[in-house]
Request: fold
Amino acid sequence: MTNHWIDIKNADAILIMGSNPAENHPISFKWVLRAKDAGGVVIHVDPRFTRTSTQADIYAPLRSGSDLGFLGGMIRYILANNLYFKDYVVNYTNASFIVGDKYAFSDGLFSGFNEDKRAYDKSSWSFVKDGRGVVKKDPSLTDPRCVFQLMRAHYDRYDVKKVSEICGTPEADLLKVFQSFAGTGTPEKSGTILYAMGQTQHTVGVQNIRAMTLVQMLLGNIGVAGGGINALRGESNVQGSTDQGLLFNSLPGYLPAPPASMPDLKTYNDKTTPVSKDPRSANWWSNRPKYIASLLKAMYPGQELEEAYAYLPKLDDGKDYSWLSLFDVMHNGGFKGFFAWGQNPAASGANANKTREALAKLDWMVNVNLFENETGSFWKGPGMDPAKIKTEVFFLPCCVSIEKEGSVSNSGRWMQWRYAGPKPMGQSKPDGDIIYELFLKIRALYAKEGGAFEGPIKNLNWDVASGNAYDPHKAARLINGFFLKEKTIGDKTYKPGDPAPAFALLQADGSTCSGNWIYCQSYTDKNMAARRDRTQTPMQEKIGLYPSWSWAWPVNRRIIYNRASVDPSGKPYQPDKPVIEWAGDKWTGDIPDGPWPPMADVEKGRYPFIMNAEGFGQFFGPGRNDGPFPEYYEPLECPVAQHPFSKRLHNPTALVFKGPREERAVCDPRFPFVCSTYRVTEHWQTGVMTRYTPWLLEAEPQMFVEVSTELARLRGFKPGEKLIVESARGKLWAACIITERIKPFTVMGQTVHQVGIPWHFGWVYPKDGGDSANLLTSSVGDPNTGIPETKAFMVNVRKA
Amino acid sequence: MTIERRQFLKLSAATAAAAFSGLGFDLKPAFAKAELAKLTRTRQTTSVCCYCSVGCGLIVNTAEGGNGRAVNVEGDPDHPINEGSLCPKGASIWQLTENDKRLTSVMYRAPYSDKWEEKPWDWALDRIARKVKDTRDATFEVKNAKDQVVNRVAGMASVGSAAMDNEECWIYQSMLRAMGLTYIEHQARI
Amino acid sequence: MSGKSFFIDLSRCTACRGCQVACKQWKQKPAEKTANTGSHQNPPDLSAATLKLVRFKETAVGGDFKWLFFPDQCRHCLDSPCKLASDPVIQDAIVQDPDTGAVVFTEKTKGLDINLVRPVCPYDIPRVDPVTKIMYKCDMCLDRVRSGMLPACVKTCPTGAMNFGDRQDVLAMAAKRLGALAPRYPQAALIDARDVRAVYLTLYPVRQYHAFVQAAEAAPGNFSRRSALALLGGNAPRTRT
Reply:
């Protein structure tokens, strides 16, 4: 989230699209309804009418997978009707940037596409620079090669009629949503967008979010109270686990994992540190060398920086190591050992049959969980013969969260400390203890026997225990970081062991360590995440800011990009809900995105989007793998042979795999219905925790499929009867729920039925609960993130 | 300093017995059972819900004597986001915790076996460490096909976990990268 | 005696079922074995183990589709027919707390016939444990309320659908909320506010939600239920306020 949960109450309009917060983030509705009480408009765009829709002022149905058409239509509507916030667009976004002559777009393809590689050469997606190396701009936004005009031309195709044809959303509903949300394009109004996996689990997932960002920047809704692009994350610490670098491509703090082409730290710094020639751009990532050095020193304090860097494993350049690729390699027998730690991939990963087959190719697997689950017990699952499966499995029991101490980071980036209540039950242990003890054993084996590349094993900083037990406070201090050598900065001298007060003081020379620079300041002289102080200034009270309750990254900033909430002189665009305000010599309110004065100060002022090298919000995003502007493509399984925007049916760069488990259905009469997966309030993720919680299982006891009354009539379905739902990859049974909340769509002139299934069930427990929705989904993914397309695929539904 | 509302809960729990006898209620036997007694000899800790990412505050009451188990979990009224409220998942964390279906000892499935066997921690961690080392040593790649130095292990992968605390995630990534894994993924990807 | 009351604002209910589960948690009520029979409503009905149940209903109001939710529970009638009907059989098997007004079933209800007690309830609330024969329903979390805590269902409610407090304050809150909603929802009403301590605010005609929302609107032909309050001494008009 750019903003945070309480901030939702400040919105004049709330666009909920690709999420179902009343069901999946129920407490968010405390704040949605407070916005509504204050006159805010709630808009829900979703294939199904859900518990969220019941509170919406406007509900607009759309076919799963057609979101980009809808959003492209909204962008066009805003531009065509001049509803954008012009000062914001000119001052704070790259709308005025001049794009180079070689950039082009034609019939669904951007310049530089290589059909064989299914990839773009992005070099033509670049800006024109002047003699100083600063991007050329046209603040009048009239130059035909400026981003604004290119964007206008790009979305000119997305008229309401075409959008309605492909999304199945009635034109009147489209216009109602566009008109209502575009009303926040005036300076004094704000609108927020709340999205979740309904936007990301597509082969155009990143571009869906980009399209939302374009809308929000046009309307001047980024950085303001009641605004922002707000990802409603699905797990209590999925924000934190991502921050801490548990992804192949990301070290802690979003530092890129090094590829083989960067053999030493100097090369890494040279190649990954962005440069801006514009003196008014803060270009915050220019600090990268300080952050990587501090991370290396946190992991290997006794090593020189270059040696520590050499210890980091290197990726092959351009190769994908993400989830779907990981299980593809496993399916091909590429791994001997596997950790499924606090996760249940046999039910949660797309194309579950492939995942389950892959697990049988392993020599050994470690499965850490609270309960028996479909991953740890895959060898006795449906269709498996244990006598033929070699995989040795270790199930290690971890404890529940209220039995241990440590911090989690919520969607609003609040890092919150948890204390232990009861002791871990039985022989279960905190994950931290298991990790700690396991690595000691591995290290001891290396000490005794020697082995491959011992340096990192021998020298890894494992000082995260007190006595013999893992100590979360010690790990938290290391993540925050401290000085390793005496260092004088300004008029203050820091001694070895002194906590780093904030990331601005981290050093590139190895004199500081910090396990994660964005968490620097979280554990200084005190544990900031544990704070429980509700104190607010009157200004902070206006927008529900609690700066002394817990701590938020970065540097306790609660609304990021907040320098865009003020005009160039530092006055809030929305005086009744100010985020920050320039008081002549300092900022008041939230922690600003950097201490510099407002932009009107020509010398010292800085542009607001400090994480982008040029300092501007990006309408034109040259870094994406599938184009600088979001463009419409159908899901890789879809009910139509063409769409109105180009002749490219699918995202030409989507992540795909070859093999027997990779069949896909496009306009295939065997699989005529669009299907989407989702969650219900009463269960969580694969259900490993909630299926075993009797009060929750009682409320939602079994796998179901929701079908429209029209489809039920067509196929003779009865409420509650067991139906078979099947795709090109698998099938499952589900109890039939016949509902008026799903209606057939008219798409390109034909009737398209939509059905939906939850993904909370699995064969292990309860025995009559059904199995995972992911048996049906396919291994195709977004070309930027690799996130699987589990929100739109084709199925058949029939009587059992 | 303001008195936190949750302290009121604590106070009221502690004084429940007094309230029952002192306020002149006409106590009929059936509702004089004083279920609040379950909160009287308990200590309170704060936590944060383990489910979605809203980050709702919890108050956990744990028995000070007896088996030392949790007796009640509900919303933290001081918490500025949830203000004491909880959805059904949050409201059932007590049952998630005090749950007889939890696996609370190490289980092992031998190759080609059709059953789980209970094992001691030390045995399991020793054996896993052995597997890790053998796999790492056997599949370690100093260089890739292009002859670039990569110092990585090819034969192991990891998924997980957003269910762990920040500190645990950090030391986990630290361990995995020290071992040389590149296939490091988790819930954020799916 | 003014006592306590609930205000249940259906305009804010999102059917998250926090109340349904929080009730079970505080009361340590067991889960029932359920199946998906084509509805999200589960358990299918109130029972000795389920004292608070969110009912789900898909319906149409004036041709517009609505998905309505009804978090059902005992209304804690000021003059409760269940008590009036059962006292002559077993005195104080059902009691009323003089301070809060909570109507509470005691263990002595095992001597009562559910076929006497349930039909006289205008809201169809009482249920019996098939094994112990003790009758159960919401007791207003009297133990919590006596200690200054909110009932579990109210405490947990995220949206402000469930409210609780001194009766006068609660009625004032309900009236204010009705006033705010009335322009947009001309059919909005407070149900049986003068007679009960769990006052529901409905946006649409009561039968759209559930058969037993309002005393006077009980199922046709069910004479005892429809007229229970009148027969058993209630004298207030049974119309919406």
User: Anything to note?
Assistant: Residues 218-226, 231-241 of chain C have pLDDT under 50 and may be disordered. The interface with chain A takes residues 12, 14-18, 20-21, 24-25, 30-40, 42-43, 58, 65-69, 158-160 of chain C (CB under 8 Å). The domain at 81-140+223-229 of chain C is CATH 3.30.70.20 (Alpha-Beta Plaits). The first strand of chain C starts at residue 4 and ends at 9.
